């Protein structure tokens, strides 16, 4: 204990650093906590840089590329290998609606891997109040909706439908509407599909494989690992009307669920 006391008295920071390293090595929950804290700190700090670069343009979809770049180093820091399949399905110059499954707060980091230029995510209004990150998102042209106000949301999405062609951009939507930790997919909300039908633009479904082999919030586990992003062929909406939306929604959800189970190595809901 004598050396311990000496260390603590004379080199408190060295001592704390050693304790930190030991904890980090032996305790996976502590590692999880450190990585998630780092993730948040990275977002808030890098957002300051994004804001600085974005301010001259003001709120503009062109700023999205700076926000995207701020996320790209994270996969190397966390030791994540991201494999993209079906890249050719994104090679389109015309507007479209991207739909993605939503698992955790890591989705935003993973989706930046494939986010096309001039593509704006539609996000819950709460993100706007997340300090520097919220401001960086606003400057990048993110479209914010209040999930509680249905009428307002419909109006906002109708406006988006009208401007997709005019301003030539794409939108990205999580049709589950909220994070799904259940290892499958929640029922889809119809907004994304109504928007695509209204604008008569194709839907491009994108599926991110299950994170369960390297990330689990309940178990406080976050290790290096591999994530697969499968981009599915576009689904045309030309000629479809409002009455076709429910069937379209189900059809896209089914194809995404099948792809999710295939790339996650899931059979009947149980992992191998």
Folded structure, characterized:
The protein is of the alpha/beta class and 272 residues long. It has ten helices and eleven strands. It has helices at residues 2-10, 12-26, 28-54, 64-71, 74-78, 107-111, 131-139, 150-167, 191-199, 245-264, and strands spanning 80-85, 97-100, 119-124, 143-145, 170-173, 203-208, 215-216, 221-222, 225-231, 266-267, 270-271. The strands form three sheets. A seven-stranded mixed beta sheet has the order 1-9-6-2-5-3-4. Strands 7-8 form a two-stranded antiparallel ribbon. A two-stranded antiparallel sheet has the order 10-11. 31% of the residues are buried. The model is unreliable at 268-272 (pLDDT under 50).
Radius of gyration: 21 Å
Assess the beta-strand content as a share of residues. 15-25%
State the oligomer.
Answer: single chain
Give the count of helical stretches.
10
- The tally of strands reads 11
Give the topology string: H per helix, E per strand: HHHHHEEHEHEHEHEEEEHEE
Low-confidence stretches: 268-272
Mean pLDDT: 92
How widely separated are the two ends? 48 Å
Sketch the major β-sheet. 7 strands, mixed
- Using the alpha-carbon principal axes, give the shape: globular
Going by helix content, strand content and strand pairing, the class is: alpha/beta
Helix content: 40-55%
Order of strands across the widest beta sheet? 1-9-6-2-5-3-4
Keyword list:
272 residues; 7-stranded mixed beta sheet; disordered C terminus; 10 helices; two-stranded antiparallel ribbon; alpha/beta
